[in-house]
Design a protein that fits this description.
The chain contains 9 helices and 20 strands. With 363 residues, the chain is an alpha+beta fold.
């Protein structure tokens, strides 16, 4: 077994960094730990690796407690492979020597096999300065796998690569880890990376794990407005129950979860940008003015303000609408499908009572 179990893990320096963190990564699963700089994600990774002690809580790897405040298993005895952001290769050692560092002499024959696995066959004689950034990261992964770890920890290993190379190397590395069945925890601040690379995503903010779910569940049905706003662009609108659905700035929306059992109440509605249908020719929907157009290649983001009350919205469009919409154009906006919502009197407390439209402002 190579699962990761964290229970009540806390850590503070001058100020608290981790606050009573609970996290479970099943055997063989890839989990992404997603958070902004300073959220505590790297500290959590270092505690799991054994580089830092937890101030409180219990860390269990497989069926072995490795840190519970009274005993700590040394990093080299935890069966963990660690890949740092900068690869951290030994510049005076060849690629083969870097990969084989720490292996017993009788195990050195596995080095060439590992280099083949990461796509570096025949490059064992080279030195780190003779490799590209992507190749260096592959060497770091091979070195981490050389000890046949139960668990691999990745600390933003693709962040220093350019966009195209980052995608290629990430796909290759995550494929290798998935095929080997290695339990993996990937630390990242990149939402796209977390959503595409992992079986589940754990969102961490201010030292607390807000949610830990499959990427699609986390995106479509987050547990709170706070979690929704932290993962991708989001329109968060106040709404009120009415007999035929939910009344909000975009009109009356179809009945959503929990409506059938209610006869009143206010809520916060989540509408993702791709759920908004925008048309300059339609006669249905709420009228709005285009306040900004942001071209992103295959898609375009439109910042909108409803004509009725100025509610701010963000929509994602493609095709003809993307090509023709201009600032100050008047368009019609309607919602596709049934949005997710949170009742303001429910047990969800994070972000309760959002009474304005909010969205991430990506330039």
């Amino acid at each position: 077994m190579s699962s990761i179990q964290l229970r009540g893990v806390s850590k503070a320096y001058e100020v608290p960094v981790l606050r009573d963190v609970d996290l479970s990564v099943p055997d063989g699963e890839i989990t992404a730990l997603l958070g902004a700089s300073g959220s505590g994600k790297t500290t959590l990774l270092r505690i799991i690796a054994g580089f830092e002690p937890a101030d409180a809580g219990v860390v269990t790897l497989g069926d072995v407690v490795v840190d519970d405040g009274t005993r700590r298993v040394r990093p080299q005895h935890r069966g963990v492979g660690y890949v740092p952001q900068d690869a951290a290769l030994f510049p005076h050692l060849s690629v083969a020597a870097n990969v084989g560092f720490g292996l017993a002499r009788k195990q050195r024959h596995t080095v060439e096999s590992l280099l083949c696995t990461v796509g570096l066959t025949g490059l064992g004689h080279r030195y780190p300065h003779q490799l590209s950034g992507g190749q260096q990261q592959r060497v770091a992964v091979a070195r981490a796998l050389a000890i046949e770890p139960r668990i691999v920890l990745l600390d933003e290993p693709f962040g220093s690569l350019d966009a195209q190379l980052r995608e290629t190397v990430r796909l290759d590395v995550m494929r290798i880890l998935a095929e080997s069945g290695t339990t993996t925890l990937l630390v990242t601040h990149d939402q796209d990376e977390a959503m595409s690379a992992a079986d589940r995503v754990a969102m961490i903010e201010d030292g607390q794990v807000l949610a830990h779910r499959a990427p699609r569940q986390l995106y479509d049905r987050p547990r709170s407005p706070r979690a929704a706003a932290s993962l991708g662009l989001a329109n968060l609108l106040p709404g009120r129950w009415c007999p035929v659905g939910i009344d909000c700035a975009l009109g009356v929306l179809p009945p959503a979860d929990g409506c059938a059992s209610r006869s009143d109440g206010t809520c916060t509605i989540l509408i993702r940008p791709e759920q908004l249908l925008v048309s300059a020719r339609s006669t249905t929907g709420v009228p709005a003015r285009v306040t900004r157009v942001r071209f992103h290649g295959g898609t375009t983001l439109l910042d909108l303000a409803t004509l009725d009350d100025g509610t701010a919205l963000i929509a994602q469009v493609t095709g003809a609408e993307a090509a023709t919409c201009r600032v100050d154009d008047t368009v019609r906006v309607r919602v596709s499908g049934t949005p997710h919502l949170w009742w303001d009197d429910s047990e969800t407390t994070e972000g309760r009572g959002v009474q304005q439209a909010t969205h991430s402002d990506t330039p």
